[in-house]
Each structure stands twice: as structure tokens, then as C-alpha cells.
Amino acid sequence: MIAKENFHVFNYVNREDYFASMDGMRYLLHKKSTDDGAKLEVVIWPEPYCFAKTPEETKQRMEFEFSPAGVEAAADWLNEQLMQQKPLWDLSKK
């Protein structure tokens, strides 16, 4: 689980993509430019492959406000997905 009080990645994501994984779930936080301004795009996919080698159909995406509050909302969503899709993440670890 992501502990939001220790998840201070907003300044990092402002400059670079942030990749991480936990318990079989890999994820990416990405600053996405849109016509309405910047958005925080979050992508999740099962291990073992990296983002570039994972088929697009196995990736799941969600967008949030590009702000520290958006990062907190993204952490909540990541934690929810970790629990809701636990069988998928467990299967990917085998």
C-alpha cells in the first residue's frame, strides 16, 4: 500500500515520469499535456514486463488533476486497484 504521507512525488513527476511497483502491480505517473492544461495520467499493468514491453491492452489508465491533491487522489486509486485486482497481481508474480 502507498502511504500518502510519504508519497511526495509531485515535484518529480513535474519533470520526469515516475515508475514503481508493488505486490505484482507496476505503475507510472506521467504529466500529460492536454488542451485544458496538464493532467496527471496514471497507468497500471501487471508484472513482470516493463511499460514499453507490456501490451497496450493490459494497461489501465486514469487521469487526475495535476497537483499535489491529484497525486493524493492517484495514491488512493492505486491502493484501491491493488486490493480490487489482487488476483491479477498475485498471478503476475508467479
Describe the 3D structure.
The protein has helices at residues 10-15, 68-84, 86-92, and strands spanning 18-22, 25-34, 37-46, 60-65. The protein has 94 residues and is of the alpha+beta class. It has one domain. The chain has a 4-stranded antiparallel β-sheet with strand order 1-2-3-4. Strand 1 (18-22) and strand 2 form a beta hairpin. The protein is globular, with a radius of gyration of 13 Å. The two termini are 20 Å apart. The model has no long low-confidence stretch (mean pLDDT 95).
List the helices and strands and how they pair.
Elements: H1 10-15, E1 18-22, E2 25-34, E3 37-46, E4 60-65, H2 68-84, H3 86-92
Antiparallel strand pairs: 1-2, 2-3, 3-4
**Largest sheet composition:** 4 strands, antiparallel
Number of domains: 1
Mean model confidence by pLDDT: 95
- Count of helix runs: 3
| Distance from first to last alpha carbon | 20 Å
Using only C-alpha atoms, the radius of gyration works out to: 13 Å
What is the count of β-strands?
A: 4
Features:
3 helices, alpha+beta, four-stranded antiparallel β-sheet, 32% helix, 94 residues
Question: Can you summarize this structure?
Answer:
The chain is built from three helices and four strands.
